[in-house]
Write a structure and sequence with these properties.
Blueprint (H helix, E strand, L loop, with lengths): L2 H10 L10 H8 L6 H4 L5 E9 L2 E9 L3 E6 L3 E6 H11 L4 H11 L5 H19 L27 E5 L3 H13 L4 E5 L6 H14 L2 E6 L1 H4 L4 H8 L3 E5 L5 H8 L3 H14 L3 E8 L1 H5 L1 H10 L4 E9 L9 E2 L3 H15 L2 E4 L3 E2 L6 H7 L8 E4 L5 E2 L16 H5 L2 H11 L34
Parallel strand pairs: 5-6, 5-14, 6-7, 7-8, 8-9, 9-10, 10-11, 10-12, 10-13
Antiparallel strand pairs: 1-2, 2-3, 3-4, 14-15
Helix pairs in contact: 1-2, 4-5, 4-6, 5-6, 7-8, 8-10, 14-15
The structure holds iron/sulfur cluster (SF4).
Length: about 450
């Protein structure tokens, strides 16, 4: 709008209300807009993808930039929030710029930053990048905020990952494209009980072509069939999450189906041969919790260094199969975390799944978790977005709605309020599961349809 148009607008007022523009509004409208630091530095919002080599291995970095900051994700396993200054530094370092050039850009983009401070910040983020190149416990994806960089940033505005059930390519391809467009860099395809192997491989290829981190989740007896794992490896799959319930085959097979334990262990070997990262997915129920130490030791001995846990839980009574009661979950979490640390297996927590009477425990376990943690959402093949916790209710449609509309929906706001509110107490200090929500509170469970209703 030029000056003449502005003056005219001030006289006539906005077209709808016909109220005249106040003098203050006119001054504000005429004042040149102050550029944000990222704009000054020439960094545009979007998703950037990099490969960084260290000691002969490559780490994939995704840098998601919004107008005020961003998130840096290393492979599928480590992430940190960044303020605008961190984004400028990370982008520069990942693009191979000299530290002095980056420090100079910081000084020009932020008022009051001295060259010495800028150089120290570049050095600090360079060290963070080095740590992220070989992720350890310092940056579990469960706890995204890097206190040194951005303690005040809420991690849940936009997910980092989506769990997407396998469907026909004409349904999946637009969703994968949209995930990339929205800056959601990681997808886990849920194979289900009888997947179309060719469609699964094509979905992984599509995700990889876009630059997404792509994982597949399923049971051993499904994924170890024929050449599927080798084909997925060739397509570039980054991780495969296998149901692994117990070191005892009879305990595992009672829930996952006869012969599945053998197939799951065979799949682990095959993944190792094809240099694909295996992740064990462990449902916690009475029978699997009983042998959890042995299970974690067996994973470590098979070279599986990552395990994701979720409880199948109920509020009252007793299930015939052994879902855990709400008041048993804290002790279960403590046992899992201690056993995982002893076995040096890195653990992730997914929200508990509510057990529905009328469905078998095995059916719950075979369906698996709703989403891979609180940095993730479930996206159904029709585009419906379901938050990781709470009722199975859509917050909006990924293909039709702007992310802001989904984020501001009542369903998503309720979920965020639940996870962001301070539910913590001092009963079990140091328990990682407490980072997002207290497991004993059913309001934070993934609740929803009976298995038979799906
Ligand atoms: S809020 Fe955290 S510390 Fe308190 S009981 Fe729950 S898990 Fe334990």
């Amino acid at each position: 709008m030029d000056l003449r148009q502005l003056m005219k607008a001030a006289i006539l007022g906005p077209r709808v209300s016909r109220e005249p523009m106040s003098f203050r509004q006119l001054i504000n409208a005429l004042r040149p807009r102050t550029l944000l630091p990222l704009e000054k530095a020439g960094v545009k919002p979007g998703l950037y993808h990099y490969l960084r080599e260290a000691n002969g291995t490559f780490t994939r970095f995704h840098l998601r930039v919004d107008s005020t900051g961003g998130v840096l994700l290393a492979n599928a396993s480590a992430a940190t929030h960044l303020r605008a200054s961190g984004v400028i530094i990370a982008k520069g370092l990942l693009e191979g710029e000299r530290p002095a050039v980056i420090a100079d850009r910081l000084v020009r983009s932020f008022r009051g930053v001295t060259p010495a401070q800028a150089a120290a910040d570049v050095d600090r983020l360079d060290r963070i990048l080095t740590e992220l190149t070989s992720p350890g416990d310092n940056y579990p994806i469960l706890n995204l905020a890097d206190p040194a960089f951005s303690p005040e940033l809420a991690p849940l505005d936009r997910p980092l990952s989506a769990d997407l059930p396998l469907a026909e390519p004409e349904l999946l391809v637009p969703i994968l494209d949209r995930l990339w467009e929205l800056g959601i860099p990681h997808v886990t395809l849920v194979a289900g009980e009888d997947p179309d192997a060719a469609a699964l491989v094509r979905a992984v290829e599509r995700a990889e072509d876009l630059g997404l981190i792509a994982g597949v989740r399923g049971q051993g007896s499904v994924l170890a069939a024929g050449t599927l794992l080798r084909d997925l490896a060739r397509a570039g799959v980054d991780h495969v999450d296998l149901t692994y319930l117990s070191a005892q085959p009879e305990v595992h097979d009672a829930l996952a189906g006869s012969g599945d334990h053998e197939q799951a262990t065979r799949a682990m070997v095959e993944l190792g041969e094809n240099e694909v990262c295996p992740v064990a997915e462990v449902a916690l129920v009475e029978s699997t919790l009983e042998g959890i130490e042995e299970t974690l030791q067996s994973l470590a001995s098979r070279g599986v260094g990552n395990a994701a846990f979720y409880a199948v839980a109920m509020t009252e009574g007793k299930s015939t199969g052994g879902a855990l009661r709400a008041d048993e979950l804290i002790e279960a979490a403590r046992l899992v975390e201690e056993s995982a640390e002893e076995s040096s297996v890195r653990y992730l927590w997914y929200p508990p799944v509510r057990f529905h009477l009328g469905s078998s425990l095995a059916a719950h376990v075979r369906r698996g978790p709703r989403a891979g943690g609180d940095h993730a959402v479930r996206v159904e093949p029709d585009g419906s977005v379901i938050p990781a916790r709470g009722p199975h209710v859509s917050a909006g449609n990924l293909l039709k709605d702007a992310w802001e509309t989904i984020r501001n929906s009542e369903v998503f706001c309720r979920y965020r309020r639940r996870v962001e509110s301070d539910t913590h107490c001092d009963d079990c200090p140091g328990l990682a599961i407490c980072a997002a929500d207290c497991p004993r509170n059913p309001a934070g469970w993934a609740d929803g349809r009976r298995v038979e209703d799906e």
